[in-house]
Amino acid sequence: MEFGVNFFPVVDPERKSASTYYDESLRLAALAEALGFEHVQTVEHYGSPYGGYSPDPVVFLTAVAARTSRIRLVTGAVIAAFAHPVQIAARLAQLDNLSHGRLDAGFGRGFLPDEFELFGVDMGESRTRFDEVVDACVALWSGREVRFEGEVHRFGPVTGFPRPYQRPHPPVFVASATSAASCALAGERGHHLQVVPSVTSREQLTAMTAAYRGARAAAGHEGPGRIQIKYTCYLGEDRATALADARAGEENYVRTMAGAVASWAEARSEQYPGYEAFVEKVRAYDFDRSLADHKVLAGTPDEVAAQIETIRGWYGDDLCLSLQFNPGHLPFDRAERAVELFAREVAPAFTGGLAAAAA
Q1: Is pLDDT above 90 for 22?
Q2: What domain of life is recorded for the organism (predicted)?
Q3: What is the pLDDT of residues 73-130, one digit of tens each?
Q4: Who's near 72: CB < 8 A, 6+ residues apart?
Q5: Three-class SS of residue 40?
Q6: Which of 43, 74, 244, 293 is deepest in the core (most CB within 10 A)?
Q7: Where in the sequence is the domain holding 56, given as residue range(s)?
């Protein structure tokens, strides 16, 4: 198994400024590299405390690149519907060059009706826009004098500039929330996968990862592909403090998410079957059940290691867990300590790499 660090800001500006959040996150990213973590990852959201401190993952990851030399830089994910593919391809290629080939390019469809309305994009086009942007970016990175003729995007002939550092192009990840069909398509096309267990059941996520692996193998792609699963991790020597932080942090996340998904009470889209249930899922959230179901990692190093052992049994040992250590308004010193504890006391049970770096 591999482990990375993930940044999903769910932060009240009245409690923590954007500059403070960025400063703290960049310090944790540099620490993660020093301790041997595999990657740094961040999201793309707009207009609210639900991820709104990360409107552009490329900008944040460029700052990480300037402070590090080895760790992978993961967009988790660029929302394909909100920009032109030539623009997205160029910005990602620039980051790949600035980092000397450390980019993993994750793409997502987006799922918040308010964000689609903000950009004047029809949610009914999200699948088409996503497929076209991923295909166009790969073509722009790999070829010259590219001509693209899609339903939404038409351009060319044009050569993508700058050319990416990695050849033929950076690894491509596809983010999927609940759809096994989307996971299978990612596997068939030879891409990698990003999933989030907090928004789906264990049975559903098992089906999603199985669909991905099966489709990738059937298509004859080399290797098993890479699967990143995102968790929030509250870790400390004192169990009571870690669990109290977890409860407060997760309840803050749920309250903030409730505002972000509220428009699903009225919105409907054939592209997002069942997403109207998000509102009820958020209302029904229960921290104790979430912890027992291993949707959140929390406790002492031994307890978190036991959770990861269970997760490995469910989804396989070829995973990369992308861990958020500074959710919400957790004090920085506790987030910093959690990163150190994970590297020294949890990771060695699953990989030797972090243990050697931590030593």
Answers
A1: yes
A2: Bacteria
A3: 999 999 999 999 999 999 999 999 999 999 999 999 999 999 999 999 999 999 999 9
A4: 4, 38, 39, 40, 102, 103, 104
A5: strand
A6: 74
A7: 2-358
Q: What span, in angstroms and rounded, lies between the C-alpha atoms of 91 and 213?
A: 30
- 23: how many CB neighbours lie within 10 A of its CB? 12
- Return the residue matching tokens 């409690």: 15
In this structure, which amino acid lies at residue 331? P
The CATH number assigned to the domain holding 77 equals: 3.20.20.30
Token pair 């995102």: residue: 230
Strand pairing class (154-158; 146-149): antiparallel
Strand bridging mode 78-79 / 103-108: parallel
Q: Which helix (H) or strand (E) holds 94?
A: helix 85-98
Tally of CB atoms within 10 A around 247: 17
DSSP annotation string for 208-277 = HHHHHHHHHHHTT-SS---EEEEEEEEE-SSHHHHHHHHHHHHHHHHHHHHHHHGGGGT---TTSTTGGG
Span 286-299, pLDDT tens digits: 999 999 999 999 99
Q: What is the total count of domains within the chain? A: 1
Query: What dihedral angle (degrees, nearest 10) is formed by the CA atoms of 139, 175, 62, 146?
Result: 10
Radius of gyration of the chain (CA): 19
- In DSSP notation, 118-175 reads HHT--GGGHHHHHHHHHHHHHHHHH-SSEEEE-SS-EEEEE--SSPPSSSS---EEEE
How many CB atoms sit inside 10 A of residue 67's CB? 13
Beta bridge partners of 174: 107, 193
